[in-house]
Amino acid sequence: VRIPVLIEVDCDGHRAGVDPESPLLLDLAAELAREPLVLRGVLTHAGSSYDCSSPEAIRAVAARERDGLVHAAERMRRAGHEVPVVSAGSTPTALCAEDLAGVTELRAGVYTFFDLMQEELGICRLDEIALSVLTEVIGHQAERGWLLVDAGWMALSRDPGSPRPGGAAEYGRVCDLAGKPLGDLVVRGVNQEHGIVASRSGAAVSPEDFPAGTLLRILPNHACATAAQQDGYYLVRGGIRIEGYWPRLDRSAAYRGRW
Amino acid sequence: VRIPVLIEVDCDGHRAGVDPESPLLLDLAAELAREPLVLRGVLTHAGSSYDCSSPEAIRAVAARERDGLVHAAERMRRAGHEVPVVSAGSTPTALCAEDLAGVTELRAGVYTFFDLMQEELGICRLDEIALSVLTEVIGHQAERGWLLVDAGWMALSRDPGSPRPGGAAEYGRVCDLAGKPLGDLVVRGVNQEHGIVASRSGAAVSPEDFPAGTLLRILPNHACATAAQQDGYYLVRGGIRIEGYWPRLDRSAAYRGRW
């Protein structure tokens, strides 16, 4: 048995990994170069890119991510190790980076779908978000200007998305069936199986405009979290005609016979 | 085909339903008494019980829930309808109610497991929480006093639980394998597959006390949300010896052949 290993490098003080300048890096490399392990390289994740408020700030994080990671790889090479894998991550830095020299792999994930967090970071446009939750109007609270829909956090997740001025939570933008946003309608609250739709401005939503049974699409705060609430993807080109189904993962096979 | 229906009653202005005093209640009852529908009764959910900060406040919500619901049923009976089902809900009110005369059904759910929200409401004790997530220490950030564990929001959910003084989020209490809380250790942050464990007080957690590979249990903020992230339940009496497995639901059968 040969077990390939990567050393996680912390380029932005965000979560896990060893500082690229730390003596620990070379101590770890020496430990991990022993059989049955095979030291293959370094990886990092520039999670702090999600705290940025402009593409310029993300570019700076991307430069720090690349520089720290490549620096760690160079230190290991100077100590005599082969470092074939130099793996960076995060969708914002992957799409904003200006220099990736020395990086051999990008592990960006959410770029597959994009979502409202990426749109608010300036990484994509609203009409590039390729994942939405289909929901149905199931009631109204006319005096409060609310629509009730059958997508709560079981369908959308409780991911709060980007922090908002005033701290008012939102759990998605409300669109028509073609995926076009309906004014400033947002999901204002989520319970387990109920979502509360209201306008950002506070203007009342007319029940007559959205009778019970109206189908809507919700663009998610965080596509990873929303997709994880589902068993699979129904493929559409807009509207509701389903052209295919992709299971997210085959849970039955993965778990059957495990215990 | 006969379709039994209940009318949702709004007893606390929290979410959905018709006001028990509203003329709409009897209009709805008349509409819903027509074939193929069979009007069976009323239901409510006292969601505002979750906003309470004392058992006394929950008792008051429970009284309002019962009174509003039974009043709606009585109005419908006076209008000539049979109302065999008078269904109330919410774990806090179900466990605090002093008078349930006239109620025929309680739809409490989370009482099955309890969780930190229920404990903070005074509904249960910590040692009555019967659901936890088993996790493993996978790293440390010794300078910050953090443990990294392999339970992030995919395992725990992003449910923020009860609001906390100062707004610092927590995603669970950290326990030993027997389910006993370890001092003031909490899950301070969650990413998709990483959890960050730290002490509430800010005192550093010693890596020596929790070497990589240490198994821990996390008590969840909200058992419904945490259970929904899993495929099933591993049954234990404390420790890690598994005595059984209950699938949460059979997703494969539910979805196979649907499209």
Number of helices of chain A: 7
| Average pLDDT reading of chain A | 92
The helix content of chain A is 10-25%
Report the uncertain regions of chain A.
255-259
C-alpha Rg of chain A, in Å? 22 Å
From the N-terminal CA to the C-terminal CA of chain A, the straight-line distance is 25 Å
What overall geometry of chain A do the principal axes of the alpha carbons give?
Answer: elongated
Structural class designation of chain A: alpha+beta
Number of strands of chain A: 12
- Assembly level: homodimer
Name the pair of protein chains with the most residues at their interface, and give those residue counts.
Answer: A-B, 31 and 32 residues
- List SSEs of chain A in N-to-C order: EHEHEHEHEEHEEEEHEEH
Query: How much beta of chain A, percentage-wise?
Result: 15-25%
Largest sheet of chain A: 6 strands, antiparallel, barrel
Identify the strand order in the major beta sheet of chain A.
5-6-9-8-7-10
Characterization of this structure:
The structure is a homodimer of 259-residue chains. By secondary structure, chain A is an alpha+beta fold. The first copy, chain A, is 23% helix and 24% strand. Chain A is built from seven helices and twelve strands. In chain A, the strands form three sheets. Chain A has a six-stranded antiparallel beta barrel with strand order 5-6-9-8-7-10. Chain A has a four-stranded parallel beta sheet with strand order 1-2-3-4, covered by helices on one side. The first copy, chain A, is elongated, with a radius of gyration of 22 Å. The first copy, chain A, starts with a strand and ends with a helix. Mean pLDDT of chain A is 92; it is low at 255-259. Chain A binds chain B through residues 8, 15-16, 47, 138-139, 141, 148, 153-154, 157-160, 191-192, 194, 196, 224-225, 228-229, 231-232, 234, 242, 245, 251-252, 255, 259, and chain B through 8, 15-16, 47, 138-139, 141, 148, 153-154, 157-160, 191-192, 194, 196, 224-225, 228-229, 231-232, 234, 242, 245, 247, 251-252, 255, 259.
